[in-house]
Amino acid sequence: MTAETALLARDLDDIIAISRGQRISCRIFLGQLRALTESLPDFPVAINLCEDRYAFMLGFLAAIVRGQCNLLLPSHQPGVIREAMLASNDRYVLHDGGFSAIDDFEFNLRPAITTQFASSDIPKIDDNQLAAIVHTSGSTGDSTQIQKCWRTLRKGTEINAAYLLEDPAERVGLVATVPPGHMYGLETSILLPLFSNTQVYSGSSLFPRDIQAALEQMTEKRILVSTPTHLRAIVNSQLRFPDVSRVLSATAPLTQDAARAVEQAFSAEALEVYGCSEAGCLAYRWVVKQPEWTFFDAFRVTRHGARVCIDADHLPEAVELADSLEFTEDGRFLLKGRDSDMVKIGGKRGSLAELTNRLLAIDGVQDAIVFQLSTASEDSELRLSALVVAPTLTPKELRMALAEVIDPVFLPRPIRCVDALPRSNTGKLRKAELEKIVGNHSSAA
User: In the chain, N or C: fewer CB atoms in 10 Å?
Assistant: First the structure.
């Protein structure tokens, strides 16, 4: 006999979201959820492309209540959407108005969620129901699909609340720069409000002025969920921001200098979160205070040589981590990077992430990435490539500055100056896009 558990564990008079200037109570949320659930098309899979965070939340949960599965794509590029639609005839596109129709296979949820009908009916979901299919970022290769049942999402969120929030019962206002369809954004900005006293801001919060305006609308204790890329833009904007209780950062390493700048900008403590799409949030560290990470207690860790596997009661199976970890005597760990991050040139080993950080530390560099081509000739395998956003510097000047702080064998050739890096809305970079840029500018210095 399978267990059914409640979709929501909140007081019905709590505020769950701020949407279009309105504070949405859990009662109104449940009323809109019911109306939307009854209106959805009869397909087993919903490709959720909603841009507004509250609309995404309603669509995500309505699909689950209807017995459907959410397919969350790695990007919303037209080609990616078209490929997903053509892969099977069992799916439709669920959106909130910013999408061109594909015959009868799309549904705009906006008309269905205008109701202000209040409800106290909290749906129950089969714990074993397939709730979502998420994708890895594809930053080191092709993106892969990962299935998530309702129990995994629910229990994972309860674990996250205990670590990411100072007190899950305390009322907080959450602003996220991470898209809701990304695993990190899903766990923090969509699922946390279901099981903690959290209200989420639904509007655009990607650029510094948007983030400033969003935080100003929050009257409660504030939490900012972001990434190193977005946080760097926030600090560089030199805008004044409302005080924030806690800043959460994930998706890429946050340096101590960057963390200090973030804490100064927000008068807040910066907590870095480590995780993966397969298992969600796994560990944390206070970047300014310590370099070591601590796993959440719910996870069991086993080591097989250089490989690390984690398991937990809410996971369907053990997950082998792609990262290399170095453990301390007290069970904490240092993150040494992914196997794909380590390169060996001239008998010496180096980290691409560390080389990138060296580039970012050069005055005048706004953004940068060092990487190794997937397909290279025998000669070019010994060379690295770099793309840099540095309007006032030349490739020659960058190479000279970099040569002062790294071993010469790791100097990237070519170094290409570009206007911007093709970052996703989580700040990540797909290797295929980087290689395409280098290929298009093979004459770079």
Answer: N
Check which CATH number belongs to the domain holding 411 and give it: 3.30.300.30
> Which whole-number Å values give the CA distances from 276 to 75, 185, 305, in the listed order?
17, 12, 20
Q: Output the pLDDT for position 382.
A: 54
The string of DSSP letters for 302-352 reads EEETTEEEEE-TTSSS-EE-SEEEEE-TTS-EEEEEEGGGEEEETTEEEEH
DSSP bridge partners of 107: 94
Instruction: State both tokens at 311.
Output: 């398991």
Q: Over the range 273-312, which residues count as b (16 or more CB within 10 Å of their CB) and which as e? A: bbbbbbbbbbbbbebbeeebbbbbebbebeeeeeebebeb
Report how many domains make up the chain: 2
pLDDT of residue 350 exceeding 70, the answer is yes
- 109 contacts 93 by C-beta, under 8 angstroms: no
- Specify the 3-state DSSP secondary structure of 137: coil
- Say whether 184 sits in a helix, a strand or coil: helix
Whole-angstrom distance, CA of residue 424 vs CA of residue 14: 33
Q: Indicate if 170 and 315 belong to the same structural domain.
A: yes
DSSP string, 82-98: HHHHHT-SSEEEEESS-
Reported as a single tens digit per residue, the pLDDT across 40-77 is: 999 999 999 999 999 999 999 999 999 999 999 988 87
Is pTM beyond 0.70? Reply is yes
Longest pairwise C-alpha distance within the chain: 68
Residues recorded for the chain: 445
- How many CB atoms are located within 10 Å of the residue 437 CB? 15
Burial class (CB in 10 A: 0-12, 13-18, 19+), 207: middle
From CA 291, how far away is CA 311, in angstroms rounded? Answer: 24
Asked if 292 contacts 332 with a C-beta cutoff of 8 angstroms, the reply is: yes
Phi and psi at residue 398, to the nearest 5°: -65, -40
Q: Do the beta carbons of residue 364 and residue 388 sit within 8 Å? A: no
Structural domain containing residue 82 = 4-334
Please report, for the domain that includes residue 204, its CATH number.
3.40.50.12780
Residue 381, pLDDT > 50, answer no
Name 126's bridge partners. 4
Distance, in Å, from the CA atom of 46 to the CA atom of 107, rounded to the nearest integer, reads 9
* 396 and 329 co-located in one domain: no
**What residues have CB less than 8 Å from 289, skipping those under 6 apart?**
none
Cβ burial 155-176 (10 Å sphere, 16+ → b, else e): bbbbbbbebbbeebeeebbbbb
Quote the pLDDT of residue 377: 44
Amino acid at position 151, single letter: R
